[in-house]
Amino acid sequence: MRQQVNGHISGSDAQAGESIREELQEFLGGEALLHQLDDLTKVNPVTLETVLRCLQARYSADTFYTNAGCTLVALNPFKPVPQLYSTELMQEYHAAPQPQKLKPHIFTVGEQTYRNVKSLMEPVNQSIVVSGESGAGKTWTSRCLMKFYAVVAASPTSWESHEIAERIEQRILNSNPVMEAFGNAGTLRNNNSSRFGKFIQLQLNRAQQMTGAAVQTYLLEKTRVACQASSERNFHIFYQICKGASADERLQWHLPEGATFSWLPNPERTLEEDCFEVTREAMLHLGIDAPTQNNIFQVRGKATPLTCGSGDGQPVL
């Protein structure tokens, strides 16, 4: 511990602090090489500044994945990088004798987890935790893992196995527009922020081929229906219904043309509210037929005017 005498730090602590500063300057002096450090445990000294500078250098070099020991740090590129997620690259990581020796990637995590199942005499459930701030790219990372397993967890000699894996992947991907419509909203930091947690379970047989999947949601931010922070929005589905419903549907769902609702603030702010047809199509692919959809939207439509009022507390409808 630091010891102070008459307001001064003891000599040994002062020397240690000076040594760290010298190491820091020496490390940052070679900043041109920072983007080559693929593991943050190689940063020396390990300080907030050196870690951030390393990530910044790698981001500037379009290198968006960095190891931190056994953890993978993923940076949101905020631009399309299709070559980073190609089927060919998936196969490269899947076929590599030691994928951990390739460049850090979400496919490395996916492949190591897959091999953990294959290498055990009695398979043990494996979990991948995708966490981060709003807008960090968690949903995209989950999608990449889904596509990776759809490619690798299928028999290379069985067309039927490929079809099953692709069908499972497609159903999971089709669930995304539905869950995003009903569970995502615009926030200050992210126009398409998930307001719920999601647990995706992939089911493999003893040959490690994908045979099924299940998606569970939890911790939905229900209070957002009635209360949103300044400059934030309600769930996308309400805006989609109000904007995408036909004249007949508006009449059936009790949504008068041109009506406004105080609990649906900041309309016309995101593209997500233009996705009503995408949501409906995804629901059809998941087995939710048109009559069932109509019942769902009718309840949602009725809920909107009942729960929403004008700014002065008087109901609009």
UniProtKB/TrEMBL annotation:
Residues 35-317 form the Myosin motor domain. ATP binds at G132, E133, S134, G135, A136, G137, K138, T139. InterPro entries: Kinesin_motor_dom_sf, Myosin_head_motor_dom-like, P-loop_NTPase. Gene3D superfamilies: Kinesin motor domain. GO terms for cellular component: cytoplasm; membrane; myosin complex. Signal peptide: none annotated. Keywords: Actin-binding, ATP-binding, Motor protein, Myosin, Nucleotide-binding. Pfam families: Myosin_head (PF00063). GO terms for molecular function: actin filament binding; ATP binding; microfilament motor activity. GO terms for biological process: actin filament organization. Belongs to the TRAFAC class myosin-kinesin ATPase superfamily. Myosin family. This is Myosin motor domain-containing protein.
